[in-house]
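Moderator note: this is an archived Q&A kept for reference. The question asked for a predicted structure of one protein chain; the sequence and the answer are reproduced below.
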Amino acid sequence: MKKILYILLLLPFLSFAQTKKPNIIIILADDLGWGDVGYHGSTIKTPNIDKLSKDGVILNRFYAAPICSPTRAGLLIGRYPNRVGIRETTIPPWSDFGLDTEEVTLPDVLTQAGYTNRAIIGKWHLGHNTLQYHPMRRGFTHFYGHLNGAIDYFTHKREGEVDWHNDYEPSKDKGYSTNLLSDEAVKCIKQYSKESAPFFMYLAYNAPHGPLQAPDEDLIQNGFDPAKGRFSGTEGGDESAESGNLGHGNTPKQTYAAMVTNLDKGIGRVLKTLKDQKIDDNTLILFMSDNGAAGNGAVNSHGELRGYKFEEWEGGVRVPAIVKWPSAGLVGGKQIEQVMGYIDVLPTFKAIAGVTAPSKLPLDGINMWPVLSGKTSHIDRQFYLGHGAIIDGDWKLIKDLGIKKMRMTDGDVLSHIPPDYSEKENLRTSNPEMYKKLLKEVAPYEAIEAKEEILSKGPKKGFKAPKDWKITKEK
């Protein structure tokens, strides 16, 4: 009788424990290719990412936009980025463009659910000219990192000025940027874990995006021999480095591998800190890349896939992705084949956080928790990849829009994925009805017109970056 009474008294507390909102961490890698992680067969050792894939659920058909700023926009607003004029390019340093301030962001949504600490640590790349675009005006309570893309990893400079910040102020912190971001993430986790409210962290690494630079200890781990000298010049996407050949290995490929090694170590430190603070069980982690491998394979890998960054082939838009949340019953080692992606993050996390208020603007993303949790085996959906490309189930269409970057020689391409992950066979002629169906489906997405598109607002010539990239203008 006493035992029964004890259980009855304990039930309310057990219920609370089971429904307690998770801490949420998004770990975003920059330009990490499908074939650059160990669990996809990479020659680069990524033990911490591989462990995450074993402890969590592999999202085998997770899609991003084919380039950085569009993915970061869609991730935060749950809507296709062409709705806000961020379609084919990133926001350049000399632009006054930014993410539309009418958009509701993921940290805005989580504010409604009691997430009092909402940090962005790393690369913003969604507007830097006026304060209205600053991340702390877009729902975040803390910002540590850089506003632009492609900064020098050691000097933190872009266009001759240091782009490194702590909240609204320039930061003078010295060190390799990936290490500094990992340090800040660890510090924040330790701080936030002491509070009763759940926290949200968007850890947006700039690695392994160029310029190609790595600490010597990671270069040595990847076979660096000082006697052979360091590579020089802009080979391998090194054009934005402002510190000469600092951080170069013997070759660009070796340097890239060392950058991934350092990134993996940082992720390992984050995972260890969660465990040390005894909050790893109820922390929801999403790991993903912002697009596919950059370049032509000289330094990175798209694995079995076709294409690279900037392209809507699988190698440009299908990215490594893992989700982990032990207390919710996500079984480690499982692999999900459901088509999903970056625009689904906001609606999924919104549902998990228990926010029931309708969205201010219609979302393109779908709540994927029913599939992740196993309550639903599959959701039929279309997924627009941008620039004339769309997925409907296992069928994929890429329209030939005359873009040389796509290297299309036979017009529109219709593929069936799986089994043709490499998109070698064009099924357009043999499946005319499906081809017509997807042409009709992609048309409304292609017709979307934003109020304003990203423009360089004039050539780079004559541009002078603001001192320490400090934002002072309101509008």
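Archived answer notes: The chain has one domain: 22-381+452-469.
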